[in-house]
Structure prediction request, 142 residues.
Amino acid sequence: MKTPAELTQLFRDRGFKVTPQRQCIFGVLHGNAGHPTAEWVYQAALAEMPTMSLRTVYQTLNDLADMGEIQQLDLGTGSSRFDPNVDSHHHLVCESCGKVRDLYADFRRLTVPEAARQGFTVGSAEVVFRGLCDACATATPQ
Ligand SMILES: [Zn+2]
Ligand SMILES: [Zn+2]
Prediction:
């Protein structure tokens, strides 16, 4: 993801108004590896800027996703997650607490057999590994 200053310039180049609220959201997302939900981004931005609105957060996330600066992911955790890492990568997902981590692994040998392709030309694949994070795996069972 580009820096908040670069994103500000990019938005202005496209004729979008860049408010201090939007710049605050850029700052919250920059370098954020936690794959936050919109609600999480809202709470983090609100802590810095009491005039933040959830509507502004959704609008800004949608604009960033449309521009390819972030990825919107549905990882089966209940709400969309937003990923400022737009490199090709995979994910580890904790089924208990919803923690998401980037996973870099070589899946070039992951292929779809000709007979199963149903006429599709396969360009890419994203793999989601589900399980328990360290904290959840070591937590005392109820
Ligand atoms: Zn967990
Ligand atoms: Zn990711």
The chain is about 35% helix and 15% strand.
